[in-house]
Specification:
mainly alpha; Serine Threonine Protein Phosphatase 5, Tetratricopeptide repeat; mitochondrion; TPR-like_helical_dom_sf; TPR_rpt; repeat
Length: 193
């Protein structure tokens, strides 16, 4: 039942009903945390921890949309901790989680941490040749470089992201690369005046 509740909250978030998603996640997390502390769930503990971590990640995404950045970051860190505790190798979900951490750190102005998370996601994504979301990671790293004032590096990686995204026909990645390139253009125009 808790797994279904978490998925319903996630679907609400994806559909833009962020308040319903927030309420669903908070209820699910409360119930999960009650169960994790019960003595008779030892054999189920790993499954419950994994569900808790997945729910924290999804809740973090909702909080990111609600611009509750510090809370979102904590959720992503909790999810990352659980992922590392349970899984012995990286998968595509872990890559997305690293990207989420990079994005929330970037939005918090923690550019060094954002760069570290995104570089790690990009490096590890090379183990998954068909994983097209890596181009989104590159565009996000370009935005971090832009925040650091590294205009040339930002231009190079966002342009690369755009070309690779076009080739892969990944519209989401193309949009993110376009956004990055637009921000670079705005900064250049501002610097000219």
């Amino acid at each position: 039942m808790l797994h279904i509740s978490s998925k319903i909250a996630h679907m609400a978030g994806l559909q833009g009903n962020l308040e319903k998603a927030r309420q669903g996640f908070e209820w699910t997390l409360q119930k999960l945390e009650e169960k994790v502390h019960l003595p008779d769930v030892d054999e189920e503990l790993q499954d419950l921890r994994e569900l808790w971590g997945m729910t924290k990640n999804w809740y973090g995404q909702t909080l990111l949309e609600l611009n509750k950045l510090s809370e979102a970051k904590q959720c992503f860190l909790n999810a990352w901790e659980v992922f590392n505790e349970i899984h012995d190798q990286i998968n595509e979900d872990a890559l997305m989680l690293l990207n989420n951490l990079g994005v929330v750190c970037m939005r918090l102005g923690e550019v060094s941490a954002a760069e570290d998370y995104l570089r790690k996601a990009i490096t590890l994504s090379k183990e998954f040749p068909d994983f097209v979301e890596a181009n989104v990671f590159k565009a996000n790293l370009g935005l971090v470089y832009l925040q650091q004032g590294l205009l040339q590096k930002a231009t190079e990686i966002c342009s690369l992201s755009w070309r690779l995204s076009k080739k892969a026909q990944n519209e989401r990645a193309v949009e993110q690369a376009d956004y990055c390139l637009e921000q670079i253009k705005k900064l250049r125009e501002t610097n000219k005046t």
